[in-house]
TrEMBL record:
<comment type="function">
    <text>Part of the ABC transporter complex HmuTUV involved in hemin import. Responsible for energy coupling to the transport system.</text>
</comment>
<dbReference type="GO" id="GO:0005524">
    <property type="term" value="F:ATP binding"/>
</dbReference>
<protein>
    <submittedName>
        <fullName>ABC transporter</fullName>
    </submittedName>
</protein>
<dbReference type="InterPro" id="IPR027417">
    <property type="entry name" value="P-loop_NTPase"/>
</dbReference>
<dbReference type="InterPro" id="IPR003439">
    <property type="entry name" value="ABC_transporter-like_ATP-bd"/>
</dbReference>
<keyword id="KW-0547">Nucleotide-binding</keyword>
<keyword id="KW-0813">Transport</keyword>
<feature type="domain" description="ABC transporter">
    <location>
        <begin position="4"/>
        <end position="233"/>
    </location>
</feature>
<keyword id="KW-1278">Translocase</keyword>
<dbReference type="GO" id="GO:0016887">
    <property type="term" value="F:ATP hydrolysis activity"/>
</dbReference>
<dbReference type="InterPro" id="IPR003593">
    <property type="entry name" value="AAA+_ATPase"/>
</dbReference>
<keyword id="KW-0067">ATP-binding</keyword>
<dbReference type="InterPro" id="IPR017871">
    <property type="entry name" value="ABC_transporter-like_CS"/>
</dbReference>
<dbReference type="Pfam" id="PF00005">
    <property type="entry name" value="ABC_tran"/>
</dbReference>
Amino acid sequence: MLTLDALNVSDRVGPVSGCLAAGRLTLLAGPNGSGKSSLLLATAGLLAAEGHVQLDGERMDLLDLTELARYRAMLVQHSVLPAGLKGYELLALGIQGEVSEAACEQMAWLSGFLKLDSLYARPLSALSGGEQQRLLIAKTLLQVSPRLNPSGRVLLLDEPLAGLDWQHQLTTLRLLRHYAGLGLTVVASIHDINLAAQFGDDIWCLHQGRLVAYGGPEVLTPELVAEVFEVKVKLLEQDGQRLLLPE
Ligand SMILES: Nc1ncnc2c1ncn2[C@@H]1O[C@H](COP(=O)(O)OP(=O)(O)OP(=O)(O)O)[C@@H](O)[C@H]1O
């Protein structure tokens, strides 16, 4: 479990306190500039912040970089990719230690979901934005895949669905749920509130740097959406599914 204790990045986000549970997929919603990326980066230890983040009771800011890389993986928004690198070389960066048979099997497993086979041999500079994103997602997942890294406990992803087509958005969300099911704490920012409601175990909603709502998908009410996103929506409910439709 990740515990945020008054985490604050001046003028960007916070103070935010709360628990991000292991075994659950928490989706961060909120408009542009509401602080999602800043919160994720500060949680990952990649952005200086006041307050503390504890991982199972251990202060993350006291861990060295090698320990951090073992415990948590983060997909950052707008990754700068080395142009000469090929697809498989990017993926290999997610593997700690030698590329073992188990690592190859895990890569093949992820490739099946994210359709990476045809991307392996190509330079990253020759791939589309969505193709690059699929490789980056796989690399991030590999880093904390329990079979390869039993110490892996946390997955943080900033807008993993950016640039993905509909099929790969759904595949990615299913993979995130799978990793949560393996016991990891999985946290991702997302702009589609209906996908957030469908796939998130927990929702955190940020507005102007503050955590204004958290809980199950039912926290995404038309009232909250109107206040935070300034969009009028109506709620449709069918077969236990909730859909927020713009009016
Ligand atoms: N490098 C920076 N230096 C100073 N302020 C920043 C920096 N990056 C972001 N901000 C500001 O911090 C606030 C939160 O930005 P952040 O990127 O965390 O929001 P976000 O919710 O991830 O937005 P988006 O949905 O557009 O990605 C915004 O007001 C933004 O202008």
